[in-house]
Design a protein that fits this description.
20 helices; Amino acid/polyamine transporter I; transmembrane helix; transmembrane transporter activity; mainly alpha; single chain
């Protein structure tokens, strides 16, 4: 792997963007640490572990922790490919401009359409899941009305911070990063060292979760424990035009997001397992929300309250990062004239240098979805969340597949971060992993309830079907004349540019 080519210089940020066909629209005020914090708080191991801890244990038992290692390794392969792409194309919006330049505008339309809806649903889900922490902290009953009000509060506060500008976004993301590390690494180590009630061998004990069937099937069923956690690193690339030296810094920020996030999640998940006072009850599915009891038994009432403050900071930072990433994707999509209202959505505030109108959409649609969940009940939240996860993996693999296609045609990434001769092998492995992950996410359930068993594929089908209909009927791409499918030519121009000699 190479992060630099010592015999050649790299293009300056503004010149690199001009070669790609764009002018600077933002202020490059985000440092490497701010970029890393943005990706890490979007990935949010605290949110991921808390949300799926009980489900993972009741499905796959303590060995389900190994999904964190398996999925982390697979997503690291994907992050390496993303690193090569963003290093050549450090453009705001991530998934959309990458797929457009690697394949074409219709292909990019579908990838971005799926990814936009997956992100908007994810924003909604994280805001909804965070309401329980806030309600517990201020001693409010968890009613439907309280949940709706607190979810709206999460979304509006995050919007206000994002509206303040990139510097404030980066500052709050760094605070969120500190909260995450305290909440997952610090607490996880404390539980492992001082509150351990189980032996380490428990991670190889299924504790009877397989019943009379095969444990292999039970273990595959627990894959969501890792699959739900390891995305968000791509948000580092969504703000590429707001980062200094993005072609070098963003790839390393994405990789560090995976590595640090994975280690943090292992400490957190492992600590909860080992500190559980009644692990068998959790595995048997008798305790659907075991973490509060584990925290109270380990930290006491005051300690558990302090953890709630840390957790709230992490949830707010996660919503903040999601909104920022979604707004930049919408901006990038609109800048190329690919969606209705593109002139309005592509506007950037001259004072704050943020895509204000895209931010409004990234806040308003999740607010409307929260109202829909209030009417439809908590079951609807689980159903739309299931779509969000597979939608994001489909969009990821659209980039991986497009990169492999260009590589087979002769593309050699021209950014300062590249994998060299290992690129093809990593690309193939990343695609194989991604297809396996999509299979795991899309497998129909076995409950016998049609909607519950098929909801993931039905949700994906509705979003992709509506996107295809709009693409072929309205032809939103027909008026867009921005560059597309030019990876090989752009690589040549970047290498031959006078400033790289």
């Amino acid at each position: 792997m190479s992060v630099d080519q010592p015999t050649k210089k790299s293009l300056g940020d503004a010149e690199h963007l001009r070669v790609l066909g764009y002018d600077d629209s933002f202020i490059r005020s985000m440092s490497w640490w701010g970029n890393f914090a943005l990706g890490f708080t979007y990935l949010s191991p605290l949110v991921g572990v808390y949300s799926l801890f009980a489900l993972a244990l009741s499905t796959g038992g303590p060995p389900s922790i190994f999904w964190l290692v398996i999925v982390g390794a697979g997503q690291l392969l994907v992050a390496l490919i993303f690193g090569e792409v963003v290093s050549q194309y450090p453009i705001a919006g991530g998934i959309y401009p990458w797929t457009r330049r690697l394949w074409g505008k219709r292909y990019a339309w579908m990838a971005a359409w799926v990814y936009i809806w997956a992100m908007l649903v994810t924003i909604t889900a994280v805001a909804e899941y965070g309401t329980g922490f806030l309600a517990s902290l201020i001693n409010l009953p968890v009613t439907n009305e309280v949940t709706l009000g607190l979810a709206a509060l999460f979304l509006l506060v995050a919007f206000g911070i994002n509206f303040s500008g990139t510097k404030m976004l980066a500052r709050v993301a760094r605070i969120g990063l500190a909260a995450e590390l305290i909440g997952v690494v610090g607490l996880g180590l404390y539980l492992l060292i001082f509150q351990r009630k189980q032996e380490f061998s428990v991670f190889f004990d299924t504790m009877g979760v397989e019943g009379d069937g095969s444990y292999g099937a039970a273990f595959l069923g627990a894959a969501l424990a890792g699959l739900f956690l390891f995305y968000g690193f791509e948000a580092c690339g969504d703000v590429a035009e707001e980062v200094e030296n993005p072609a070098r810094r963003i790839p390393t920020a994405m990789i560090m997001t995976i590595l640090v996030g994975g280690v943090s999640a292992l400490f957190s998940f492992g600590g909860y397992v080992l500190a559980a006072p009644d692990l068998q009850a959790i595995v048997n599915g008798e305790d659907a929300d075991p973490i509060p009891l584990i925290l109270e038994s380990s930290l006491g009432t005051v300690g558990a309250k302090l953890f709630l403050v840390v957790a709230l900071t992490a949830f707010l930072s996660c919503v903040l990062s999601l909104q920022a990433a979604a707004s930049r994707l919408l901006f990038s999509f609109a800048r190329d004239g690919m969606i209705p209202g593109h002139t309005w959505l592509a506007q950037v505030s001259p004072r704050r240098a943020v895509p204000v109108n895209a931010l409004i959409v990234a806040c308003t649609i999740p607010l409307l979805l929260c109202v829909l969940i209030y009417v439809g009940g908590s079951t609807l939240l689980m159903r739309i969340t299931a779509f969000a996860v597979i939608g994001i993996y489909v969009a990821f693999q659209a980039v991986v597949l497009a990169a492999l296609r260009q590589r087979i045609k002769g593309w050699k990434p021209a950014g300062p971060f590249n994998l060299g001769a290992a690129g093809l092998l990593v690309n193939v492995a990343a695609l194989a992993y991604g297809l396996f992950a999509i299979y795991l996410l899309g497998r129909p359930g076995t409950s016998g309830v049609f909607l519950d068993d098929w909801i993931v594929l039905l949700g994906l089908g509705v979003v992709m079907g509506s996107g295809l209909l709009y693409l072929f009927i309205a032809k939103p791409h027909s008026a867009s004349h921005a560059p597309e499918g030019d990876a090989i030519e752009m690589a040549r121009q970047i290498r031959e540019h006078p400033d790289t000699q």
